Amino acid sequence: KNEVEQSPQNLTAQEGEFITINCSYSVGISALHWLQQHPGGGIVSLFMLSSGKKKHGRLIATINIQEKHSSLHITASHPRDSAVYICAVRSLDSNYQLIWGAGTKLIIKP
Amino acid sequence: KAGVTQTPRYLIKTRGQQVTLSCSPISGHRSVSWYQQTPGQGLQFLFEYFSETQRNKGNFPGRFSGRQFSNSRSEMNVSTLELGDSALYLCASSLVGQGVSNEQFFGPGTRLTVL
Asked: B67: Cβ–Cβ under 8 A, 6 or more apart, which residues?
């Protein structure tokens, strides 16, 4: 079993829909990261969380440390949000190495 | 502040050759991590350098090696290239070292094609 699991693997939605991407992990962590990768490869860090909730524009990230679960929400989705969203955790067990989820490919149709 | 830069951006090599990729972190960042991303795969961690020392290493064969210089610039070397080494190689820098959660900033990547 992977230490970081994301769901769904693929998500297609219509413009304007509320999007939720989930990340579950099985290791002790010091922080959880959400990143965005556009076609062409560039990766941008969206959030770094160790507790609670963070908001940036239409993006909201939450984390529940007890349940070892995080969600990334996108409100009023737009075609430009189409990308791969990746969850990564900084593991306490592996010398603080980042452990990566496989990513969620999001397509927003106009 | 300039972002993370990687050179070259694209590279074509043949099997058996070796290749060196370069990464310049954001000024002041002392940690550099390298990742391999193949089509359909998530990021695979190669290694992390901090203050010229390799701090973490992923599960890659010894053909993959790296180093970090005193100015924090890092190079990654792959010897005896195989077709399966074709991938996007990403470098990320962060400010401080082990035990502290800090944001990683990614470069644009080097796309390596092995023929």
From this structure: B49, B52, B74, B75
